[in-house]
Amino acid sequence: MLDRNYTEKCDIWSCGVILYILLSGFPPFRGSRQEILQKIKLGDYSLDDKFWQEEISEDAKKLLSRMMEVDHTKRCSAQEALDDPWFKTVMEKQKLDKKKAKSTLGRLQSFQVIERNMNNNGFIHHHSINLKFKKFFGFSLHLS
After folding, report:
1. Domain 8-137 has CATH 3.30.1490.100
2. Phi/psi of residue 96, nearest 5 degrees
């Protein structure tokens, strides 16, 4: 999309970014506007730190990698994402470990504070996250 070549695969990449944030509580790309754009072009994000190693399954990381593939011709389609073993398992269980949910909520709140306090060099001055997922997770999440 940064090269002005928009297809449905751009939406899959965006869904991958959203999934990354939902799983971790932080965006995959951080830094100044220029740094973020460069990281996006290179696909420079990490699934290797302690949190990702201890808290997130290999299947979830594989799906994220397929969704956030830089080369749109190699990126999974919407149907492939829906058919992914991890996604099917999550949809079948529709359960969330409350400890992990609270941990993710805390990281989302921290991210919001960071974004709100960024100066003119930041990518976003005031970022408000309002996610409603009571049906899936069993509670509503409202951040503003």
Report:
1. no
2. -140, 130
Q: Let me know: does 77 contact 8? Beta carbons within 8 Å.
A: yes
Cβ within 8 Å of residue 43, ≥6 positions away = 68, 69, 70
Q: Which of 45, 21, 49 is nearest to 115 (CA)?
A: 21
Query: What pLDDT digit, counting tens, does each position of 38-47 carry?
Result: 999 999 999 9
Would you state the structure tokens that stand for residue 117, as one six-digit string? 């306090």
Look at residue 88 in the predicted model and tell me its pLDDT.
83
What does R_g of the chain's alpha carbons equal in angstroms?
16
- Interatomic CA distance for residues 17 and 14, integer angstroms: 5
Would you say the C-alpha torsion 64, 67, 70, 76 has a positive or negative sign? positive
The two tokens of residue 15 are 């869904």
Q: 3 or 144: whose pLDDT is higher?
A: 3
Q: What is the pLDDT of residues 45-95, one digit of tens each?
A: 999 888 898 889 999 999 999 999 999 999 999 989 989 999 888 877 665
Cβ burial 77-92 (10 Å sphere, 16+ → b, else e): eeeebeebebbeebee
